[in-house]
Amino acid sequence: MKQNVIEIKNLYKKYKLGTVSIDTFADDILVFGKNLKKKITNKFKENSIYTLDNNDIWALKNININIKQGEIVGIIGNNGAGKSTLLKILSRITLPTSGEINIKGRIASLLEVGTGFHPELTGKENIYLNGAILGMRKYEIDNNIENIIEFSGVHKFINTPVKRFSSGMRVRLAFSIAAHLDPEILLIDEVLAVGDADFQKKCLKKMENIAGNGRTILFVSHNMSAIESLCTSAVVLEQGEVKYNESATKAIQLYFSGSLKKIVKEYKYNQSNATGDERLKILNIKVEPFKGKIISVKSGITFTIKCLTTLEKTSIFIGLSIYTHNGIMLTHSYTPITDPKNLKSGFYTTKSILPNNILNKGLYYVIIWYGISNVEKLAEIKNKAFFEVMSVSDKTSTREVPGIINPDITFKHVYSKK
Amino acid sequence: MIKTKKKSYWDSTITSENKWFDLHFKEILKYRDLLWLFVKRDFTTFYKQTVLGPLWFFIQPLISTILFSIIFNKIAKIPTNETPPYLFYMSGIIAWNYFADCLNTTSSTFTNNARMFGKVYFPRIIIPISKVFSGLSKFILQLLLFFIIFLYFLFNGNDQIFISFKVLIFMPFLILQMACLGLGLGFIISSLTAKYRDLNYLIGFFTQLLMYASPIIYPLSIVPEKFKYIILANPITPIIELFRIALLGKGDFNLNMIAFSVISTITIFLIGLLVFNKVEKTFIDTV
Predict the structure, then answer these.
(1) Angle at A224 between CA B117 and CA A75, to 5 degrees
(2) pTM value surpassing 0.80
(3) What is the ipTM, given to two decimal places?
(4) For residues A177 and B194, what is the distance between their CA atoms, to the nearest angstrom?
(5) Among B26, B34, B115, B283, which would you mutate to test the A interface (most chain A Cβ atoms within 10 Å of its Cβ)?
(6) Which three-class secondary structure state does DSSP give residue B150?
């Protein structure tokens, strides 16, 4: 039985929204006065930190996670779910509002690589500086410098100022430094979004090795395939709370099905929370099969989008893009919603049909926007509208082929002797 | 019982508690290599991509000295304790520059490093301490320049000047006190500007005013009794005077002045240290 190396207990983090101004200064003084009064009258209630003021939000709410030695734990969730806040508290960049975290071993974090690189210093000088920022002693860097340079693959430029490096080279150098940190616990925040495919593979391999040596890794990413192949378990965060804590594959499925169940078939907005401004609002997005009852490779897909506009005699366009679940754009298409001369204020509904035999089985999302042609974007839906394409199942079998697209490729076979 | 057992198992615990006296001296020691690398970085990047390179460390005090001599000595006829004006002003400028450097570079610690502080943890105090050391390297170089010019005057038969070795051995303490005073004020200002930037606009103006309230362009001996208490309320005054005695053999001081100056320096430094330590834990939420 492996031992826990991280124990997170009842962790809360509150953030204040809005800008800093004379008002917040007045607030600060009021709060300071209140606290002082409470301390003096000795009626300080523990509960008071759990109440939210007007401009407060919970970035993290009652988080309880235990992590065992040698685990690679993925953290997934939509933007703003609290993933980065959690890593920030773990790496001591900021304090929690309440709760407790116990840690065994040295923690190193890789929150956006290359922080602290000085553009005027050479690659080698920056290895020392960055290594020290991440908590390495000089002799540790001395011992590893050859490996770091070798792994980064930038040895040709190692005596050149970093400002002459391409962004890819910087990232590679930064990751190499962090990968040679040798901490007991490594926190990684979305580093694989950069670098070419070869280097990404190398990073994943390195992370596997690190974990193989009994190190523990916490890994935040939107790259589900990386999480699935690397992580032993995954935590799904939703609006600051732990939604699921499961094996990686199960968590990813739950994460998507969660968003599927809630959003997919129909996105409905009332006029107050709809995306857009008073000129145009997106009210409704519906994703449904064109033929049949389920969206499948053979069904084709109908997207129905409804908007409310107050503009008149303007050239308004609607645009639609389809992405794979891990963010690869597959297509983009746009068209004017009516002849500019005829545009009246009111509701417009657009039906858009994606023919069958294009998307393969898998998870996709669609992004919709409205705009005035060549001038500005009026509205773009904030949440990704996920939908799942099922494989075609007929009575005899389920036919599945790999790949993103699934067109009806025709074959013609001709035989000849020569 | 359970608690002690627990304590031995876990290496560290993060809670919401933010105590005033939670200073991590051990941790700072662990990061001493980083401190040294920051100093090296500041020093080498100072003159990167310049033609004159490290000469810039000397040009600024030289030009200021010449200007001060012309304006304050030749035009305004301010006496310089019967020492050569060039040496008088230069010694004052070098000492003042070190103090002002410590103050200015440390007072923007949080705002200037917010990006880095938001991404990675290390004891934030490393940054201001490193600034004090990079300032020190500059100060020592400028002091060498002073000695060269001093020797030139000595060999040209000026018998008014002499180095007071009795005071010179206290030089490290004078430097330490200037550093602590600059750092202490820098701590306080950087902590105050982490959330409200208002003070940023005052700091340049404030150092300038403070310079006129210190015996840089005039010796303490010519200050009229009526104003003397203002100048003496400034903890830098005895430091500058002692500095001049060490280098030129002339200056005014008494033990009361020194005691007041040392006590106020320690007070400012400690307040600064505590405030900084308190603010560093969560400033990233408000910066």
Answers:
(1) 45
(2) no
(3) 0.81
(4) 30
(5) B34
(6) helix
